[in-house]
Amino acid sequence: MYLILLGPPGAGKGTQAASLSKELRAAHVASGDLFRQAQKQGTPLGLQAKAYMERGELVPDELTVRMVLERLEAPDCSGGVILDGFPRTLEQARALDQALGASGKNIDAVLYIKVSEDELVRRLGGRWLCRDCQTPYQTISSPPKVAGVCDSCGGELYQRPDDSRETVRTRLRVYEERTAPLIAYYIDLNKLIEIDGEQGIEEVRSEMLSALKSGVRAR
Ligand code: AMP
């Protein structure tokens, strides 16, 4: 199964992708995590992506598409993939369709997590991530048991530099301009499923699973 989680920064894509990946036994492929990993390792890709990420802008399509398509070739992706944060532009969506089509595969569904802008700004301000396993926490709605420590692996929690107020504003604007047009693109392909992302984590997860089971699509 190939699923895309689409939605603005802070919508909960990472949290839901991690949980769906376990439930559906599909690989979780997060383009932002791949870029952060490349930066940590100091690879040329990481260095090229750094300045764009710090400004809250999109990394150029060419670099992003190459990185994600390469990741999709890995053996753990053969049983299915949950894409988180990719595609983020029409060019990326078309490149993905083309690459999957060439190997006789296609996207089964796109789960669009809808959340209001006020809620996104509130959530991103209180977001903490594990340095080691990337598990996300939220100060109010899903805090860790011990402040600053990951419940899953004991790793140190940190706040992403691009979650600062100023950069969040840029990321939301970039989302509206470059990524939101994908909603219409996937409606046209009859693949879009809209999910109410303002519910609790468990409710969002169960709405996703039942929507996938019933196969209802937005029109
Ligand atoms: P994320 O962790 O998904 O919020 O991504 C963090 C940053 O990585 C974004 O603000 C972009 O700079 C970059 N990035 C992640 N995914 C993509 C993508 N599909 N296209 C372009 N840039 C991306």
Short description:
Helices cover 48% and strands 15% of the residues.
Word description of this protein:
With 219 residues, the chain is of the alpha/beta class. It has one domain (2-116, 168-214): P-loop containing nucleotide triphosphate hydrolases (Rossmann fold). The chain contains 9 helices and 8 strands. It has helices at residues 13-24, 31-40, 44-55, 61-72, 90-102, 117-125, 165-179, 181-188, 201-214; strands at 2-6, 27-30, 81-84, 109-114, 127-130, 136-138, 157-158, 192-196. A 5-stranded parallel beta sheet has the order 2-3-1-4-8, sandwiched between helices. The chain has a 3-stranded antiparallel beta sheet with strand order 6-5-7. A hairpin with a 5-residue loop joins strand 5 (127-130) and strand 6 (136-138). The two termini are 22 Å apart. The mean pLDDT is 94. The chain binds adenosine monophosphate (AMP). Adenosine monophosphate binds next to helix 2 and helix 3.
Quickly list its features.
three-stranded antiparallel β-sheet; Rossmann fold; 9 helices; 15% strand; binds adenosine monophosphate; single chain; alpha/beta; five-stranded parallel β-sheet
> Shape from CA axes?
globular
CATH class placement: Alpha Beta
Looking at the overall shape, the CATH architecture is 3-Layer(aba) Sandwich
Bound compounds, please?
adenosine monophosphate
- Which whole number gives the mean pLDDT? 94
Q: Please report the distance between the alpha carbons of the first and last residues.
A: 22 Å
Helix content: 40-55%
Oligomeric state of shown chains: single chain
Order of helices and strands: EHEHHHEHEHEEEHHEH
Strands ordered across the widest β-sheet: 2-3-1-4-8
Provide the low-confidence segments as ranges: none
